[in-house]
Specification:
- There is one protein chain.
- Helix content is 39%, strand content 16%.
- By secondary structure, it is of the alpha/beta class.
- It has an eight-stranded parallel barrel with strand order 1-2-3-4-5-6-7-8, surrounded by five helices.
- α1 links the parallel β1 and β2.
- α1 packs parallel to α2 and α1 packs parallel to α9.
- It is globular.
- It binds 4-methyl-5-hydroxyethylthiazole phosphate and magnesium ion.
Length: 208
């Protein structure tokens, strides 16, 4: 079983990028390509449908030792026995999530140095940092933070930090040059003609 410190490539359930494909096939392709985490992130599904897809992802991630994180929903994370939950700045604060999640992973998205410091002080297990580049995947994204925020925290962030937002094979070098070898990638992978190969190429860049 992977742990948080093993994480380099952080991947997602297909969300709006599903097209006419099977969510489980897309998750499997990402795992074969080297995904270390799969996050269930299905903003447009009913909770019941998220549960259904989540059960399948839990099975696939358990079989392969990949971490399974649920976006937003603490209840679903517990029902699915996920490895953790990912919270945004407008979701349930960590001090309320921790008693429920106990030893499980809590990650939080951050968009400024102040939010990074607060996340660490609140006992987050990892942070997402971004959007590093422009993204069209997320509705109402925070202002682009650029590689500058990654540079600011590269030497003194005591928990793993995962770069997110507009990252793909063409700009992943900017992320690694900013000292970050963990990246969360949605569209560049899920829009690629060969999802497994795209993961493999990005993963190779994250392995120093
Ligand atoms: N949080 C900040 S940017 C983003 C999330 C969930 C979306 C990243 O998607 P993409 O397609 O890799 O830009
Ligand atoms: Mg959220």
């Amino acid at each position: 079983m992977k742990t948080l410190s093993d994480v380099k490539l952080y991947c997602f359930s297909p969300g709006g990028f599903l097209k006419d494909r099977d969510p489980a096939d897309l998750v499997s392709a990402q795992i074969r390509g080297g995904a270390d985490v799969i996050q269930l992130r299905e903003k447009d599904m009913s909770k019941k449908d998220r549960l259904k897809v989540g059960l399948r992802i839990r099975e696939l991630t358990r079989q392969t030792g990949v971490l399974f994180i649920v976006n937003d929903d603490i209840d679903l994370a517990l029902i699915l026995d996920a490895d953790g939950v990912h919270l945004g700045q407008d979701d349930i604060p960590i001090r309320y999530a921790r008693p429920l999640m106990k030893e499980k992973i809590i990650g939080i998205s951050t968009h400024s140095i102040g939010q990074v410091q607060k996340a660490v002080a609140s006992g987050a297990d990892y942070i997402g940092v971004g959007p590093v580049f422009e993204t069209t995947t997320k509705a109402n994204p925070a202002k682009r933070v650029g590689p500058e925020l990654l540079l600011k925290i590269r030497n003194d962030c005591p928990i793993p930090h995962v770069a997110i937002g507009g990252i793909g094979i063409d700009n992943i070098d900017v992320v690694t040059k900013a000292g970050c070898h963990r990246a969360a990638v949605i569209s560049d992978i899920l829009l690629a003609p060969d999802v497994e190969k795209q993961c493999r190429m990005i993963k190779a860049k994250l392995n120093p």
